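Could you please review the protein record set out just below?
***
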Amino acid sequence: MSDNSSGNLSDELSGLDFAAVSPEEFARIVKGLSARELGEVMHGDLRARVLSEVFGRMKQQFRPEAAGQLKALIRWKITGESEEVYETSIADGACTVSAGRSGAEPRTTLVMGDADFLKLVSGNGNPVTMFMMRKLKVAGDVGLASGLTRYFDIPKA
C-alpha cells in the first residue's frame, strides 16, 4: 500500500505548478509529509523543479535590512539521488543565487539530504537541532550558518 500512496503523492506533487504555490502553502505541504515521503518524491524532474523553485525564491524572501553590511557566499550541497550544488551570495544588501559551484571560496557550506533541506527552507526544521542531530553538516563559519534564517522570510506552516 505504501508504494501506491507514494505514487499518488508523487503524482499529486508532480502536477503542482510550484511557481503558483505560496511559501506558506509549500510549508504546509512539507509539514504534512514524513521525511521518508519527502525523500521518495525528490527524484528526477520533480526534484529539479522543486530545488529550482526554492532557490529561485530566495532572492524574493531575502531581508536586506536584516543582512545589513553582511558579505558572504553560502554554498548549499543537497544530497539525494545526486548531489546538487547552489550558491547564495549576500553582498551590498542584495542576494543572488546561482546553480553549480563557482571558483570562489564560500564562507560557509551547508550539506544536507533532500528531506532535511525541504524542512529547513519551509520553516519545518530547526537548523540548530538539525546540526546537533547531524542532519545538517556545516563547514566554515558555523556562526553565519546558525543565523542564516534571520536573513530570509521563512514561511510558517
